Amino acid sequence: MTKLTDFTIKEARKALDKGEFSAVELTKAHIEAMEKGRELNAFITETPDLALEMAKKSDEKIKQGKAGILEGIPVAQKDLFCTKGVLTTAASHILDGFVPPYESTVSQKMNDEGAVLLGKLNLDEFAMGGSNETSYYGPVKNPWKAKGSDVDLVSGGSSGGSAAAVAAKLCMAATGTDTGGSIRQPSSYCGIVGIKPTYGRCSRYGIIAFASSLDQAGAIARNTEDAALLLQSMAGFDAKDSTSAPVEVPNFSNALNRGVKGLRIGIPKEYRPQGLNAEVAKVWDNGIKWLEEAGAIVEEISLPNTEAALATYYVLAPAEASSNLARYDGVRFGLRKEGKSLDELYMNTRAEGFGKEVRRRIMIGTYVLSAGYYDAYYIKAQKVRALVAGDFKNAFTKVDAILTPTAPTPAFPIGDKSMENPINMWLNDTFTIPTSLAGLPGMSVPAGLSDSGLPMGLQIIGKAFDEETVFAVGRQIEQSANFKAVPTYLEGK
After folding, report:
1. Whether the model pTM is above 0.90
2. Is 337 designated active site?
3. Pick the CATH number of 4-263+398-490 from 3.90.1300.10, 3.40.190.170, 3.40.225.10, 2.60.200.20
4. How many CB atoms lie within 10 A of CB 95?
5. For 39, 143, 375, 413, which has the most beta carbons within 10 A of its beta carbon?
6. Residue 266 pairs with which residues in a beta bridge?
7. Per residue in 242-287, pLDDT tens?
């Protein structure tokens, strides 16, 4: 008999409607898995009582024939989404004790569709990081380990808790946010599917801001079918968010089996630099071959400003972070460290409340926005961002989607000395940042294992608001790769 934690969302929804098991039973199985999985440190806050209460309501709605897309499905929210009455921390000491009196639009939409909240997931502090090591609550452990090794690996960041929890089957799916790769990169490291939709597809209302022109909510799931269902429940226009796009939400699931025959797939030559990891290159070549065999037309394209994307991002994102994080001052909510003056209160609170990486980015951002440097750095970066977006616009006159690696390497060890230099850590987002700067949809799909047995993903990039093609290509990669490997954590369980 299939364990309740092994069901996909689609399978579980069918079984729930047929009465094969109840939402309460499904939720209890995941609560047990969540409790047993605490060694992974994927959750910051667990909400088992709330989950069971929500599951009971789902069982009633199912009986009444009023089930939503996610009715009775146990999910978890990245702890960047404000959840009414539930502690929300952004994995930062400065938000100690913050319990929002309101719900983010994305989590509310999921609640309306019947999702059951298991808890809040760990992340890099304020989503600033690529390994989930900047969290005030400690790093998340990747459920995968290299062959013959007991070394704990990073789960990726910033949505590391989300990716690890889904991969380890502690929850059936999870939300993530992606500013420069924070859904796609951890999904690649953990061997699951993650999609960052087009900027504006999902509301940012109630999501604790890092970089407002880049942040976008998205879906993390075990396969493309589940990711489509999750994104369906999250997306849609929201009048409370001025950056929310008033565009119709298509049925993403309908696009899954369209196939790729006749689609033109672009392969950017700039994403294959000298010294590219040989294992990553091999998986990429496999992906190209699979798409060709399925009838796609593959052609080389050029995205000439790719090389400037990383530097551009690390001017713009810290600048916006510097502005967004100015609100955390110890006066209205969260941590408060008294001082002899108001300035001292601010300094004491922010010095203790913010971690090293957050302080670094605030300092960089404040510098590039300061008088005398604004034009030289921030304005110039905005111009380069427009060039990066223009590269994609030109490419999409020739192709329907773009295929690249998701990350330049598989997951690396927690505390890896080579990552102590922040620039080395930032380089992990080389393949994902350009997509974010252009505001385009991007999905990571597991496509193979490294020689050491660690998962590696391929990234599909689409035109603005064309997630349907992204899902079609992602589904084809998924079927061709036939990725069945199981995380080390789940072996024997």
Report:
1. yes
2. no
3. 3.90.1300.10
4. 22
5. 143
6. 299, 402
7. 999 999 999 999 999 999 999 999 999 999 988 889 999 999 999 9
